[in-house]
Design goal:
By secondary structure, the protein is α+β, with helices and mostly antiparallel strands. It has one helix at residues 4-19; strands spanning 23-33, 38-46, 54-62, 68-73. It has a single domain (4-73), classed as Nuclear Transport Factor 2, Chain: A, CATH 3.10.450.
């Protein structure tokens, strides 16, 4: 089973692989979903110029093997 730091690292590497270099990537939240045996990792980054707003992504990562199961946009009110 992967631990929280590894789940966060996997999410960051996955985002970088899909989107390329982004400005101001931050780890926002990490939660373990016991019923699904998954880590829910929320990352944010600065949107394209003028870099004044953040975009948030939630990654579902299998705790058993570190496989990224999904990436979704997280809306922040």
């Amino acid at each position: 089973m992967i631990e929280v730091k590894e789940a966060a690292r996997i999410a960051g590497a996955y985002l970088d692989d899909l989107r390329g270099p982004l400005e101001g990537i931050m780890l926002e939240e990490v939660e373990y979903d016991d019923s699904a045996d998954e880590w829910l990792v929320t990352l944010s980054y600065l949107m394209s110029p003028p870099f004044s707003m953040r975009e948030y992504k939630v990654f579902r990562i299998a705790a058993s093997d570190g496989r990224v199961k999904s990436m979704k946009i997280r809306r922040v009110a």
